[in-house]
Specification:
elongated, binds glutamine, 12 helices, Rossmann fold, alpha/beta, seven-stranded mixed sheet, Helicase, Ruva Protein, domain 3
Amino acid sequence: MIGKLTKGENNTSADNDTAIVTIRGVIQWAVRELQCSGIDSPRLDAEVILSHLLGCDRTELHTHPEKPVQCAIASQYKKAIQRRVQRTPLQYITHHAEFMSLDFYVNESVLIPRPETELLVEAAIKKANGFLSEDEIIVIDIGVGSGNIAVSLAKYIDISKIYAIDISPEAIDIAKINARKHGVENKITFLCGNIYEPLQSRGIKIKAHFIVSNPPYIASSELSVLQQEVRDYEPHTALISGTSGLEMFERILEDISSWLRPSGFLLLEVAEKQARQIIKMMKNTNIFTSIQRIKDYQNISRILIAQREDNIGQDRN
Ligand code: GLN
């Protein structure tokens, strides 16, 4: 049960009837509520939500703690804090998530972009330097979600032409919002469907310089052990991949040779303890000459980069 946000909450005025709620007062109230319900970063969350509702920077909350908060805002704040107490992720409350220094609109239809995924984008940007003599760098993004990968690549690789695919029409809508927001909608073709299936008539067979994906990779049996924020609020289609967690990787690799061009790169984000199995699956395709792994901030092999042989015809004979 959430406590009462009263007029005069920790206010300087001793008289509750004339007192109004201040920035300091509502934050103190919210921090207590969040702390009591076991939220890890109560002050940060309380401040981020309030600055979002007030449309100001967090620093302003610190410089003007005595400023009054209008009743309407105080009531919205109470509802928002209530949602956080119930473990709605902060980003779904504010509808903002930062990725590659860009601001992404997010809601419950899409996964919240994670910092680890930036490693994949950074690696793709670096590898793209090897293709600068090309007229166009073709990228296929499988599971576009909020558009974090596709939009950042479009933003940071000048000559990119991106095919962004998702099974969820709601996710495609959000990704389009983000592409427009960052002015890259002309560089991205959004396609709703299953893995490579919507690419069939696009004339890009064996033309992709990059195939990138942060696919669903959690085993269905692991759902119950996920953090409540993730389990109860993030879209399961974006998280779960069959009983092993490896199904999507199998399906991406199954038909990879029809789409990746010679010397092209496949970049995949993988879960802890999956790297070895996926590298084995990659080797079984017999099309890659090198496979590299990148570790994340917790020293977990998180990104796999596989480069296709440069002469398909010769190796096929
Ligand atoms: N590309 C998005 C992300 O990396 C969505 C991934 C997904 O839906 N599995 O967050």
